[in-house]
Amino acid sequence: MDKAATDKGTGGADPSAAGGGKATGATSTAGGSTSTAGDSTAKDGPTVAPTSAAGTAAEDSKASTAAGNTTAGKDSTATGDGTAGVKDGTAGPKDGKGSADDAKGSKEDAKDGKAAGEKKPEPERWEAFGPAPAPVPTRVGRAVRAVGRLLVHEWTLAVVGALALAVAMTWPTLRYPLHTLPQDYWDPSLQAWQMAWSGHILLTNPGQLWHANAFFPESWSFAFSDTLLGYAPAGMIGTGPEAAILRYNIVFVLAHALATLGAYALARQLGAGRIGGAVAGVGFAYAPWLLAQAGHLHVISNGGIPLALAMLARGHGWSLRYGYRPRRRHEAWVYAGWLVAAWQLSLGFGIGLPFAYFLGGTVLVTAVVWFLRRYLIRPVKRPFGTRLLVADVVGGLLFAAVGVLLAIPYFMVAELHPNAERTLGDIDIYSPPLSGFFTAPGESRIWGALHEGARAALPWPPEMTLLPGFVLYALAAGGLFFSVWRLRHRLYLLAGVLVTVILAMGTRFFDGTYTYAPLFEHLPGWNGLRTPGRLMLWTTLLLGLLAAGAVTAFCQRVRELAAQRIPSWPGPWLRLATLLPLLLVIVEGLNTTPHPVVPPQPAVLRTVDGPLLVLPSSQNHDQPVMIWTTTKFQDVVNGGSGFTPAQLADVRRVTLNFPDQVSVDYLRTLGVNNVVLVRDQLAGTPWEATVDMPVEQFGITREEIGDTVVYRL
């Protein structure tokens, strides 16, 4: 080593030896001088030249600062680290040496934050023009932001939009919700009673669920029709007819909202855009043919079907547009999907049974295709996951268990009441012709009056006017040629539409010999379905998915056109064009559904004990009677359902001459204690002439209570 270079502190050292010195403690080297602080020592070694690597100078500068000693070095001002060097690159005192005392510095220098030869950094001249630092949000601010993000989230807007649209499209259901029911007060009264009974009995005596207070003294009477058991939690709130009517109207509106949201979720999960998903949701919930079913809540309550399918597809990471994406799998969605499917099944087998068979067939086909693709046709590993498999097994078993438990009472009813069994002749009565799929019900505001002649040509218009909407037909047809779905998927959807239409025709398609009849004869429970036209539900869903693909492709094309504009933002006409299909589907779903006032409950039914019989008795008269009993739930002989039990038919026949000795003795053998005649319903009936006759000779008493006459047996 050149000793002169070391003593004089010049930059004559060999650059290749930079960093070769070994130091203990913090050292700062400038030129050839080494400054130590504390117990730092410098050993003989090559001295770093001023022209040495910038990284060494920066490291030395950091070490010097950490030790409390600031040493000037060459180019230190360029680093902006607060050290200033002299022009010739030498540092510190003239002899080039530092000491511990120098490292500490004077009190005045320490107070000013600088050592000998150091000066304060100058402020950045452009600092005032820089961006302001982001403020740190408070806890309240973070909460407000989180709420704001939630409120503008897609699914929040979808839920709110579905609810608002349901209120508007079912209006005036909520105008007088305590006194009116949509379409008529016959079947809706029955279903309002069903919700009230299930909620009441599950709170008081769950073991008697299937042995309802109506149809006395029949057993398993709650299974005489679809039960809407899934709405039992709503039935636990409130008592009496007004509460039952209010509950029904609220659930009626919510069922439309759920149908819209479910179909929207399914279309979005499969790959449709927001507007395309909205078209599918609105078309599914407000198809014109469903207006004829406004009095059948178990048919309107179909939103669990597309919602469950959307959840299952989401959990399995599958999309119609993007295929199988293993990274998007999530077993929690699979559990949720099976639970929603089980809940949908609990609302009734009329809609739930085809859904159950669809799920079973889908699981079977998917398993076979998965096996073939992985092991035979294209042996490529497609990850599935043990937890996902467990979720499917557990969820599928839960769904099957719910189905079996719900089916047991219906098998008991079929065994006790052979007249409840359907035949192909019954199916033929309700099977619609092909023209029914282009005919709207009378409740359609747009097409109702125009299709009056077409409806008159149908044998049973309430179950044969099956128009899903001409707009939906047109959009689905366009979706066959212009869509975001792949061609084979469009063909699958088209095949599904054709198959479901053929099945919905029942025995009208070549007598159903190779279509509906095999299902009726061989699938368990299928012979309990009276109206094949309700399979139009699946046709509507598939048409909605085809339409969603077309609308999504159209919206994509609009965005491409907008990107060519300056600024790249769609003009008002382009925006309106994307919303036009949705607006047309909404308009076609407008209704003129009547909302009649339900006959008020006679005051005597709030106090009289059962078992009792209310006269007149018939299918239409008995359904409001059932809702009248929701105050006390006393046993009542009256009842209305999908079939008339033989014993109830005998009661109606025998009591045509009531009060007489034969009818009194017959009712006593059944255990009936009281008979109530409602005066304002006696016009044109046999009781109009006998209601005021003396009854002492029959061993009974007669009492006037309000507008009713009570006979004590």
From TrEMBL:
<keyword id="KW-0812">Transmembrane</keyword>
<feature type="transmembrane region" description="Helical">
    <location>
        <begin position="388"/>
        <end position="412"/>
    </location>
</feature>
<feature type="transmembrane region" description="Helical">
    <location>
        <begin position="333"/>
        <end position="351"/>
    </location>
</feature>
<feature type="transmembrane region" description="Helical">
    <location>
        <begin position="357"/>
        <end position="376"/>
    </location>
</feature>
<keyword id="KW-0472">Membrane</keyword>
<feature type="compositionally biased region" description="Low complexity">
    <location>
        <begin position="24"/>
        <end position="44"/>
    </location>
</feature>
<feature type="transmembrane region" description="Helical">
    <location>
        <begin position="535"/>
        <end position="555"/>
    </location>
</feature>
<feature type="compositionally biased region" description="Polar residues">
    <location>
        <begin position="63"/>
        <end position="80"/>
    </location>
</feature>
<feature type="compositionally biased region" description="Basic and acidic residues">
    <location>
        <begin position="94"/>
        <end position="127"/>
    </location>
</feature>
<feature type="transmembrane region" description="Helical">
    <location>
        <begin position="245"/>
        <end position="267"/>
    </location>
</feature>
<keyword id="KW-1133">Transmembrane helix</keyword>
<feature type="transmembrane region" description="Helical">
    <location>
        <begin position="297"/>
        <end position="313"/>
    </location>
</feature>
<feature type="region of interest" description="Disordered">
    <location>
        <begin position="1"/>
        <end position="135"/>
    </location>
</feature>
<feature type="transmembrane region" description="Helical">
    <location>
        <begin position="274"/>
        <end position="291"/>
    </location>
</feature>
<feature type="transmembrane region" description="Helical">
    <location>
        <begin position="155"/>
        <end position="174"/>
    </location>
</feature>
<protein>
    <recommendedName>
        <fullName>Glycosyltransferase RgtA/B/C/D-like domain-containing protein</fullName>
    </recommendedName>
</protein>
<feature type="transmembrane region" description="Helical">
    <location>
        <begin position="466"/>
        <end position="484"/>
    </location>
</feature>
<feature type="transmembrane region" description="Helical">
    <location>
        <begin position="491"/>
        <end position="510"/>
    </location>
</feature>
